[in-house]
Amino acid sequence: MAEKEAKRGAGMSTLLKVNNLVKRFGGVTAVNDCSFEVQEGSITALIGPNGSGKTTAFNIITGYLKPDSGTIEFDGKLMAKPTPSSIYRAGLSRTFQQARIFPELTVLENLVISSSFGWKDLLGTRVTAADRKRGMQTLEEFRLDKLHDLRAKDLSYGQRKLLEFASVLMSDPKLVLLDEPTAGVNPVMIETMEKHIRDRNKAGVTFLVVEHDMQLVMRLCDPVIVLDHGSKIAEGMPEAIQSNPQVLEAYLGS
Fold it and tell me: Can you say how many angstroms the Cα of residue 136 is from the centroid of all Cα atoms in its chain?
């Protein structure tokens, strides 16, 4: 608690600013005039009941969907026509609900291709000495180094989640969007994922996390932003969010 208060008082600047996003699919408004900010150095949670617009917002922020209206500002710059590659190069990376890896490539090769967002490093000599050293260091951090020559398709579900997380870090991102990082994994893997998030955050990486494990959110994230029907309905410290009437109604009401 004291650590969170100290971090909040350290004068953090805004790293991501979402302004009045709207996204419709036919007659359904998935994101409705949604605005929120992510402060540099924070582990910010984006929560809400199923269908509240969290993943759609993620897809807009990272250039996978075009909004009907609204803007995204990242690191002080307006992202006029964001694409996944331009967002990635700007320093914003993400994971997905279902880990996106290259199943036929080795664990180490997955990291190499992620570091460049292209296939050029896999042409000719697949892994350079520099790539291998950096990749192995990252795999060692995630305790995947002994599996570096294994095809990614042969990893367990939890290991694939870790590999995807390790891969997005290879570009030295400023902000990482984690889409349900602990979904479907066992309690030991949840502890492992939480440790890596905390360690990387202490090293300077900012996180925006969509997560349904409320126990994890409440002990890991600050602040917590809550969406319902595509709009922000609450934002604050975990303790305040837990007792917020609007949040309780969104999760428990009709």
Answer: 23
Sign of CA dihedral 90, 192, 166, 177: negative
What is the 3-state composition of the chain as percent helix, strand, coil, each rounded to the nearest 5? Answer: 40, 25, 35
Token output for 88? 């990635």
Domains of the chain in start order, with CATH, are 1-91+173-254 (3.40.50.300), 99-172 (no CATH)
DSSP letters for 180-202: STTTT--HHHHHHHHHHHHHHHH
Residue for token digits 């609450």?
Answer: 234
148-182 pLDDT, tens digit each: 999 999 999 999 999 999 999 988 899 999 999 99
Pairing of strands 14-25, 28-39: antiparallel
- Distance, in Å, from the CA atom of 57 to the CA atom of 33, rounded to the nearest integer, reads 11
